[in-house]
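Lab manual, section 2.4: Encoding a predicted structure.

Procedure: take the sequence of the chain (542 residues), apply the prediction step described in section 2.3, and record the output as C-alpha cells. A sample record is shown.
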Amino acid sequence: MNDADAARRAPAGGGNGRPRAGRRFLEGPKARPGKSAMRRIWGIGLLVLLALAVLLWWRTPWGDRLQAYSFDSLQILSPRKIESLPVTIVAIDDKSIAALGQWPWPRTELAELVRAVAREQPAAIGIDVLMPEPDRLSPQRMLERVGALDPAIERTVRALPSNDAMLAQAISEAPVVLVAAGVPEATGRALHAPPFIVTGSGSPPLPHLGGVVPNIEMLDAKAAGHGLISVEPSNTLFRRFALVADVNGTLAPALSIEMLRVALDVPALRLHVRGDAVRGISVGKVFVPTEADGAVRVYYSRGDARRYVSAIDVLQGKAPPDALHRKLVLIGLTGLGLRDDFHLTALGEPMPGSEIHAQLLENLYDQTLLVRPPWAPQFELAVFVALGLLLIWFTPRLKPLVAAALALGCVALALAAAFAAFRTERLLFDATPGLSLMLFFGVLLLLTLAESRQRRKAMQRVLQEQRERSAYVTGELEAAQRIQTGLLPGVAALCADGRVDLAATMTPAREVGGDLYDFFMLDERRLFFLIGDVAGKGLAAS
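Recorded output:
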C-alpha cells in the first residue's frame, strides 16, 4: 500500500508540482511572445522604422554633422597616398622671415620672389596672398609719413616706381594667378574673372556671393588669372570646395581650377549643367566632375615636407632644380607667426591654406577626388529600411543575445561595405544610419522583452490555478478512498477462513475509461473475481 499511496499522491507533472511544459516556458531561454504579441511588436516596429526613415531623409543638422564625421573617419583610417607631386609651395616660412624681416615684406621682395620662381619656368604661379591695399612700405607712402623734406629729395623719391608697380611688372612677365576673397555682401569692387561657357540649361544651386575683396587694380590688371579663396575662421574644417561661385550674377572660378586653366593655356572654362545640378567643369580636355552645387570633396594625404621649398632658398638660388620646373607653384604663408592662415583638414591636422590648395590641385591632377554619388541617399535609406525589416522579423523570434548579434552584424556589414567602397573606389556612403539601426533594435528588444514578461505572468497565473484545482481534486479522491476501503472487511477477520484469500492493490488509473469487473474459475473449488472502481471520473482517470 505504501507504493500505491506514493504513486497516487504524486502530482501529474512531476515531483515539484509544476508541469514540465510550463517549466520550460517560464525558465527556458526561448520564451517568445505569442502570435498576437508578435503582431503588436511588428506594428509598433514598422511605425518606429518609418519615423526614423523620415528623419534620415530630411537630413537634420545633427545628422549632417554625424555624416561629416563619418566621412572624416574614413579618411583618417585610410588617408590618400601621394602618387605625384605636381604642386610646389614656395613657403614664406620662419627661415625666410628670419632672413628678410617680419611680414609683410615690401612688395619689391615679393616681386623678386615671383621673378626667381618664373626663371624656373613653372606651369603656373598662384600667389595665395591677398593685397587689397597699396603697399605701405612704398617710398611714396613713407614720404607721406615722414613729412617735409628737401624738395629735390622729395622729387627724386616721387619719381621712383612704387613697390606695387614693380610687383605688377613682375606679375605681367609670368603666368601668375592672383586671389580674391569672396564675401556675402556687396563691396563695390571690380571682379576679374575668366569667361565661362555654360553648356546645358537649368538653374544649379551655385554658391552665391554678394561681392569680392580683390587686390589693388594695378596688380589685378596684370595677372593672367584670378581665383576665389574662402574667408573662413581658422577653426573651420575644410572638406568641400566650390570650384565655381556666382558673384552677383558673374561666374568666378576657385583658385585651384583657375591655376589649372592658366597652366593649360585655355582661354575659357566650360560649366556643364543638367537641370538643377552641375555635372562638372571642363578645362580644355580635362573634365572635373562635381556635385550638384559645383563643389568637390578633397581626399587628403598627411602633410608632406616634399611639397615645400623655402622662399629664401628660391631667392638665393638654393632650391632643388626640379622643384619648380613645369610645376604648379603656390606662394603662401607658413610661418609660425602667421597661424591665422592655418585650417583644420578632414584628417584633424592643422594645415596652411596654401597646402590645402595644393592638395586640391593634386586631387585634380591625379583624379583622386572623393565621390558622393547623387543616388547615395536613396540607396542608404533603402539599406536602412531593408535591415530594419529584417530585425522586425527576427528579433521577436530569437533569443536576446542572438538577436543582438544579428543587429551588430547588420551594422558591421554596413560599416565594412562603406569602408570597402571608400578604399577601392573613393566612394562616400554614410554609415551613420547604423546608429539609428542600433536604436531601432533597442526599441524592438524592449518591446519583445515586455511582451515576454507579460506572457510569463499570464502563464504563472494559469499554473497557479491548475495547482489549486489539482490539490482540491486530490483531497476529494483521498476522502473517497478512505470511505471505500472502510467498507471492506478487514484482512484479519477473513484470514481464519481457509476458503478466502483476499488481496487488494490500488494503483492510479490514468487511461481507464470507467469501472471494470471480471471473474473466472481458478479451479473446481475457487472463483476469482476482480473489481476495478475508478473514482473521480472525468479528471486524470478519464
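Check your result against the sample. Residues 433-487 form the longest helix (55 residues).
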